[in-house]
Batch of 3 targets.
Target 1
Amino acid sequence: SDCLMSNRLTLNINKTHFVNFSKNQPCPINNLNIDYSSINEKNQTKYLGVTLQKNFKFDIQINKVIKKLTH
């Protein structure tokens, strides 16, 4: 939050989430808050058009590419 404010940036809390990446059992994260707003955990996220999954698998991304190639 301090970094964002010092650089005159804003964060859209409604579009913000986090992914707890881990090949094995991830470390539990109870609550993640920024300026008293709760950040939700997701199993996957899209970054620069690539779907990243919390378990480092790429089956969702591969299936999306295959679907695009076959249509």
Target 2
Amino acid sequence: RSKCMPLSNDGGIYWGMTRCTPIAPDPEGLYEPCTVEGSVGSGLDSCELGAMCWDVDAETLVGTCIGLCSGTKSAPTCVDANAQCWVPADGVISACLPICDPLEADACPPAQGCYPFLSAFHCAHDASRPEAGGAIDPCEHISSCDLGLLCAEAAVVEGCKPGGAWGCCTPYCDLADPVCSEPMSCLAYFTEGSAPVGLESVGFCGLEGS
């Protein structure tokens, strides 16, 4: 038995092609720990049919099995209803990324944060630095703020002095029980009716009307 898997055509960590690879004799299931053989982008992993080893550590070659998208190109689907299909422009990979809730302290594994991506939130490595990433610190990327903080547009964050950065870090807040430092208030992250199921209460501390 085999499965169609993305792999790197130069031995690196970026996928550039696909090929059929053998399925492990006793494969790991969805969201179970997994391993890859040889290198991160080898396409050889211990996950079951319809899944691939994701977020693999380059040294230990250990990751987690996530689903691959099914359905059609115009209407992709995921086995897990709480996941979103991500297909980069090159179309080599089609991964079902689990949705997380940034209001939950343990929403993601250690050393990862819950960040906005696609039309929801997903776990990714925490790229903040010890000397930066705190509240009102300048930020350039979605993962450059400390856990529990959003990289928001500079004009929205009270006291933000971005320098050459795009914005500043500001806390998430719960619309059902809002707590923010004045003059900021809890603003809805999603526009009305667009929030994924379970994320309707996600807000962030910002200035009204900015």
Target 3
Amino acid sequence: MPVARPISILYAEDDEEDRTMVLEAMKESRLANRIRTVADGEELLEYLQRRGRHADREEGLPGLILLDLNMPRLDGREALREIKADPRLRRIPVVVLTTSRAEEDILRTYDLGVSSFIVKPVTFDALVETVQTLDKYWFEIVELPPPVEPHGEHA
């Protein structure tokens, strides 16, 4: 089995239980990627733009963003709009991982430039399977662009 490329994942999720479950599913799947988490859309943008408590982060930009839609302060839709409007961030693939099945959310996020829309599975086993599929697709099959740091240089 091919080894996953060392591409980091940034996971934006406000619900601690959901965040823990997804991280456990990633661990169970033996996902080799470095995972960072943020609690809402505002913190997601602070991380990506090296502002606030993330101003001194040493890691480069993530190679993939997992994004919940319904978060406080700045929801996933608005964060997605800002990411896709920023030339330094727009190439980062964003995968919505949410409990919403609303057609409006699906259509709106694709209109905003989301790469994929995944409804969170209900059971842990199904979540592990989803994470394994995500891993295989995004880190073994797809060619991702190199991340560009906010100052324009490649990571």
